[in-house]
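Technical annex, item 7. During the second reporting period the consortium partners agreed on a shared format for inverse folding records so that results from different sites could be compared directly. Each record opens with the tokenized structure and is followed by the designed sequence. A conforming record, contributed by the partner at site C, is shown below for reference.
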């Protein structure tokens, strides 16, 4: 059974409180928080994502799944640890070498938070294989990070399968999260490839009935 992490990136401020309640009723498994710094990607979303994270912590017990699309990982880890997330994921492309990645992984874990490592569509899974025994999750981007509502890049699915095969062959116990362009009409291909946590933003929050979409995605 897959889990659903709903991205609130495209939710307007006027609708966020109602959306948080509705997503909880609709049984999303996580709130996916897309943090952009205006450097790693052009957009800057951190202020509004901090605001939304604060609301979530005040009215919901659902776990936060924080996806950092930032260059200065440590700075944003420190900001988002304040919201007691279940997991913080940072990009392998944002660090200079494996040593820095390991330092960040250890730092996040030492704050009682799980850690994920994210890969852009252009990045080979080889870049993260040596880190897999240290993280809880790999986030495979199925679009180029930067904005919600883009179409899924089909050629990223083979990376998910490759990663799934490696994880199984090496008896690793980690999640594969797929993120970007996933909707009810293509979720099956992402599940078939081997992802067990599905991020969906516009595929859920721009629909009328969150509950039926989430139930159908999990089915
Ligand atoms: C892309 C973000 C994704 C994305 C999800 O930069 O990391 O989380 O916005 O939204 P949809 O499902 O609309 O692509
Ligand atoms: Zn994301």
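Designed sequence (site C submission):
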């Amino acid at each position: 059974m897959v889990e659903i992490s709903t991205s609130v990136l495209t939710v307007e401020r006027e609708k966020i409180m109602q959306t948080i309640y509705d997503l909880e009723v609709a049984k999303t498994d996580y709130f996916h928080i897309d943090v952009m710094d205006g450097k790693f990607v052009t957009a800057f979303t951190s202020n509004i994502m901090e605001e939304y994270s604060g609301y979530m912590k005040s009215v919901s017990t659902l776990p936060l799944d924080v996806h950092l699309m930032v260059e200065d990982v440590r700075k944003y880890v420190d900001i988002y640890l304040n919201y007691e997330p279940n997991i913080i994921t940072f990009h392998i492309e944002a660090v200079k070498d494996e040593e820095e990645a390991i330092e960040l992984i250890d730092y996040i874990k030492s704050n009682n938070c799980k850690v994920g490592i994210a890969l852009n569509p252009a990045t080979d899974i080889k870049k993260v294989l040596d880190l897999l025994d240290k993280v809880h999750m790999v986030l495979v981007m199925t679009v180029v990070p930067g904005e919600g509502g883009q179409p899924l890049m089909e050629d990223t699915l083979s990376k998910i399968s490759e990663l799934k095969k490696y994880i199984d062959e090496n008896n690793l116990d980690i999640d594969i999260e797929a993120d970007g362009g996933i909707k009810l009409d293509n979720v099956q291909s992402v599940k078939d490839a081997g992802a067990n946590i599905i991020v969906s933003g516009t595929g859920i929050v721009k629909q009328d009935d969150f509950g039926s979409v989430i139930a159908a995605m999990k089915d």
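Residues 7, 9, 32, 34, 67, 143, 145-150, 179-182, 199-203 surround D-xylitol-5-phosphate (ligand 1) (CB under 6 Å). The longest strand covers residues 30-36. All partners now use this format for quarterly exchanges.
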